[in-house]
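Q: Sequence in, structure out?
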Amino acid sequence: MRAVDTNILARYYLRDAVQGRIAARVLSAGDVFIPKTVILELEWVLRYVADQPESKVIDCLAHLIALPGITVEDRDEIEAALNHCRNGIDFADALHLAASKACTELLTFDDRGYARRARNLRLKPPVHVPTR
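A: Exactly. Output:
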């Protein structure tokens, strides 16, 4: 099994003229492992470097983890994070929440309303902003 990094996946999804074809061959050969940190970084690169809309990025990530011959670290967490994203939670926050599933709560000082959105969606573990 071979692991790939973010550069391989970014070139594939951004359809780079030369490296995109090489990346497609690597992925289509199967027996590929993708660490969840690479998925997290890919989401960031596609959204903030390549300026792709969030819905397109979520579709790309869902496509990636469904490819035959691809093994994704903590696939259930990635799938949960994608579902949370479809409900308005930032992907990084959603992945942190999914990875914290065995905890009693997730604490944040996030000022974007993450705790409120998570509460409204009844996500587990509950997300709280500590006050003291």
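Residues 36-49 form the longest helix (14 residues).
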